[in-house]
Please model this.
Amino acid sequence: MDSESTSTPPPFTTLGIVGTGAMGRGIAQLAAQAGLDVMLFDVKEGAVQEAKAFINGLWQRSVEKQRINAEQAQHYSERLIEASELAALAPCDIVVEAIVEKLEAKQGLFGDLEAILSQQAVLATNTSSLSVTAIAAACQHPERVIGFHFFNPVPLMKIAEVIPGLRTTDEVTQRVNALGQSMGHFTAQTTDTPGFLVNHAGRAFGTEALRLLGESVADPATIDRIMVDQGGFRMGPFTLLDLTGLDVSHAVMESVYHQYYEEARFRPSPLTRQRLAAGLLGRKTGEGFYRYEEGKQQMPDEPVIKPTSPCPVWISQEDPESARALTALVNAAGWPLETGTQPTEQALCLLTPFGEDATSCSLRQGLNAKQCVAVDMLAGLDKRRSLMATPITHSTFIQAAQNLLNHDGTPVSTLQDSNGFVLQRIIACIVNVGADIAQQGVAEPTTIDRAVELGLGYPFGPLRMGDHYGATRIMTILTNLLEATGDPRYRPSPWLRRRAALKMSLTVAK
Model:
């Protein structure tokens, strides 16, 4: 093997930025801190000076907080160079565009840059939704075009997606990967598919929550509380939609859905289109799924649980692990426990379905649905407990279940009857989408998980999440949802199905 084929591609030394808004500024800051000269260009008069002042202000605050010294701040500042015209970017060996998200605009810019830069220079796009291959198609040298997608705020979101187009060379990919790592970010190399990796993986969280809302299973506050307390997410899906803004979120939902030719797993909800038309965008307009007063979210109080006297409790033994946990809870509460194979007429019957509703679960077990309440056991009983009753469950048994589950002060959420509860449905859909991303070869399993943890802030990446809750259990939830609804949205990915059958980790490729 000759030395040329094994040599390390040269690092970049001079990086150009076209577009000095929030994304361009963040990329420029990281590049200067990584030791590159950074040339800034923007068609808007005064924009470059504003960007430089903003970045220098950040470094000055870092000096005041003793994160860097004054000499470092001065060195960083000296690396920021204003380009008075596009032609001034000629010395750059890589240019990153962060302009308007329109295909024609990006293609036109890259066409202009090809006439300015050397043939060895790399053209990188920070696009979040456009095809890198399509952008490159208008270039004379598409092999040097690549996606280099950062997340806002760039310095804090420690991830950059590296997206080769179909004609991008391996050398360009290697060099951009190395550049992203030198800037202190995890680089997630992904194929040029709609939504790339992070936005692709994030499709299930919001869309399934909206589906639950559309079915009147629970209100936004209840769904959010469950996903934060039981699921361990930093924020619930409706808080996130309000934070992002429906004008942004709805457009992304529709874009990914249509780019995948109406793939059911990504189906948007009519609720967001309606709310978008009403101007209920979220925090930015003062009202979305929640109201905001002086920027503060107005979260409704939890429903009050009316006290009741203890009654006998009978627990389904279909899932032994869940039955043991509920038995321990009943004993800790001091309520009488029935242990017969069938309950008496006075007993509260607790069921533990996965992907099933309380109605089907009670009838399948030959129980009186008027006595039955289902409890979500996917995440255990530690921080919040979720229950749902059949449409004919007597109110005395619902109130009894609420009091039993709340006996130690742990909050309780009461849902309308649903196949799979709130947590089960959203978790199963997240895992399934992640598994299908792995099946498609969009990225390596470890990259998928790390990218989602960094880019979306999930407690686990989707494949590790599947391992955490159990691939077999996730399969059960999805299979029951698919059978009950007939909706291909819930069809299990082959990646998940095979690994669950073989009792393999979802994070293992082979």
Remarks:
- Residues 1-5 have pLDDT under 50 and may be disordered.
- The radius of gyration is 27 Å.
- DSSP finds 21 helices and 16 strands in the chain.
